[in-house]
Amino acid sequence: MEGRPSRSWYLLLALPVLGLLYPPLYARHDPELFGFPFFYWYQFAWVLGAAVLTLIVYRATKRDP
Amino acid sequence: MIAAVVQEAHDTNTTALVIFVVLFALVTVLGFVAARWRRAKLEHLDEWGLGGRSFGTVITWFLLGGDLYTAYTFIAVPALVFGAGAAGFFALPYTIIMYPLVFMALPRLWTVCRAHGYVTPADFVRGRYGSRPLALVVALTGLLATMPYIALQLVGMQVVLGALGVSGDWPLIIAFVILAAYTYQSGLRAPALIAVVKDLLIYITILVAVIYIPSKIGGFGAMFDAAAKALPTHTPKPGALLPQGPDAQIAYATLALGSALALFLYPHAVTAVLSAKSAQTIRRNTALLPAYTFLLGLIALLGYMAIARGIKPSNPNFAVPDLFLNVFPSWFVGVAFAAIAIGALVPAAVMSIAAANLFTRSIYKEYLRPEASHADEARTAKIVSLLVKVGALVIIVTLPTKYAIELQLLGGVWILQTLPSIVVGLYTRWLHRWALVAGWAVGMTIGTLMAQSQDFAATYPLDFFGTKINAYTGIFALTANLLVTLVLTLVLRRTAGAADAADETRPADYDELTEDTVYPQPAAAPAPVA
Fold this sequence. Notes:
The structure holds two protein chains of two kinds.
Chain A: H1 14-20, H2 38-60
Helix pairs in contact in A: 1-2
Chain B: H1 14-33, H2 45-50, H3 57-68, H4 71-84, H5 91-116, H6 121-129, H7 132-163, H8 170-186, H9 189-217, H10 219-230, H11 245-263, H12 267-274, H13 279-288, H14 290-308, H15 319-327, H16 330-368, H17 374-398, H18 401-416, H19 419-427, H20 433-453, E1 459-464, E2 467-472, H21 473-493
Antiparallel strand pairs in B: 1-2
Helix pairs in contact in B: 1-8, 1-9, 1-16, 3-9, 3-12, 3-13, 3-16, 4-7, 4-14, 4-16, 5-11, 5-13, 5-14, 6-7, 7-16, 7-17, 7-18, 8-17, 9-10, 9-14, 9-16, 10-14, 11-18, 12-16, 14-15, 16-17, 18-21, 20-21
């Protein structure tokens, strides 16, 4: 990687925060998934989503030796 | 006398008790052996109190996971879900949005602390703002917020001991004396090593639980149906499967945000972060730690499984222990309960070490013995870690558990008030040190009064020019704190005689994107000339 990595990658990390801090977005029952109401599986899905985004940002801002 | 809140009559379960004692003995041995692990001179606070800042990705993952997701969490979150439903599930968004915040702020904190040998957040504030009073305020807040948190770990242990049919205070006292002894001897290395065992036990227990229990209650669909039917009938406050209406939803979101902001300001979180060997270790870990969040979500669902299984505990705290006793064979109950009890030891150890570091650096060295050597610091911290644990034990044995829970809730509100000094300080020192002290005082006062007026419920119904906003008390207090800090900073910056004190850190000290190897070991003495 040339020079210093850009911290603008950090903006990706705002996505889980936005996706979770407005409950009207997901406080509903349908659609269900594997018996889980939407409210529950949506939040479980964000656990994985946030981890993947963090990994992407980590890779993108890692200064290679 | 053990407080009535967690008292429940259970028969003694011998098989479970034997497994429990064996596993407990195993981690006790580990705790003492830890002193020999990566052998170092433990007569230095960097070594005793931060494990030599040497932990790699794997140990940091276990230590942070074991430290942040405490035994009390494992009891209280499903208990809340069992009683109130969706409201208790805020623990999931809370521990999801925490990591983006950690990712941005804590590697920066690690980097500057490494460069200057800071051991606590208060050390950093002292160096950054050149203000002893501000550092003292940050240290005292940390101590105040940590004490009841340690006490609550004992509640987690009390619950599983009670469920095993063990009564009286002595088992708890024995467990804590053992914990105190190996923490004294091994420092942060003890919880780091024990965390590995604890977390493996927890993962096994929960994976077995979420595969096996649904097969006995007709699957997840039937579980949610049973919860949807039962929750609205709960007294005195009906629960709900989904947070309905603005009151419940604002409370949900602000509790998630406020708790996420508070958690990584706690001294025990910072201690575990600073013990990592590089800023990159912490950055990598924030992508890996959500595995614990997933686990916590599954643990929360245990509350619904208890409902579906028709568990009727005398106290919601016993929902999960009673569920396990109901569905699992005795030997596996022993494993599961040991996981929870050992789960109390790791955070209790890290918290007492963090409190000891704070006292040693910000009070002992700063005000009592400025000439203290590294060995003096380490010795003081070891003794303080003992005193802190005795204090927590006395709180739990003599006061009703209710007070520990209320104090812990206040602790979260209090620790949030150090956010402007610590987190904003990582980016700019524009905020004036005296404005920060004033904002802190306002936030502490407002937060405490609000919580007290609501009988220590987590939320406060604020009347904002005719609109009622029902949100987490900590967020209101932090808002007031920030407003006062901003306005006073503007005033002080226009006033003569409010000049900034010296900043001993340099901009380069904050570059968390640097290589792992950039910093030389500050502890390494120059080679003696023969």
